[in-house]
UniProtKB/TrEMBL annotation:
This is DUF1569 domain-containing protein. It comes from Blastopirellula marina. SUPFAM superfamilies: DinB/YfiT-like putative metalloenzymes. Pfam families: DUF1569. It comes from the Bacteria.
Length: 147
């Protein structure tokens, strides 16, 4: 699964919410949407200071991992930072709506973006593609109930 835009990810999340879904991974739709939002919002608001401790590795990560992420071949099984792990009791409908608002905010943002923790400073288009690829990576673990 790949999304060309974040809007496509929102459409997919809304379809999963409307139809119901089957999980093929660890997280519910609400947990995934929460995670996507919490990872995406710091592009505008800023990341915790300690995310820049390994900034010297960004050129290597950018050269080796970013092409895989953008091609839809994100590595599976990499543990996320604890601050980005969702709680268990999130409500799907609330988190899909919050994710949609986060996407709208990202798309309307006219200023600069904070450097990505792994890839460094990215232009708007590349950052959009990264967030869309990240959404596809997680949402691919859910299938509509009627499939």
């Amino acid at each position: 699964m790949q999304f060309a835009t974040l809007e496509e990810a929102v459409v997919d999340a809304r379809q999963l919410l409307a139809s119901g879904y089957v999980r093929h991974g660890n997280w519910t739709l609400g947990q995934i949407c929460w995670h996507l939002r919490i990872v995406q919002d710091p592009s505008i608001d800023g990341y915790p200071w300690y995310f820049s401790l390994f900034a010297f590795l960004r050129p290597i990560v950018r050269r080796t991992l970013m092409p895989r992420v953008l091609s839809g071949d994100s590595p599976k099984g990499i543990r996320t930072a604890p601050i980005f792990v969702p709680a268990n009791e999130l409500k799907d409908d609330e988190e899909v709506a919050a994710f949609e608002k986060s996407v709208e905010r990202f798309l309307k943002h006219g200023g600069s973006f904070y450097p990505h923790p792994g890839f460094g400073r990215l232009d708007r288009e590349t950052l959009h593609r990264i967030h869309a690829a990240h959404a596809a990576h997680h949402l691919r673990f859910l299938q509509t109930a009627d499939e």
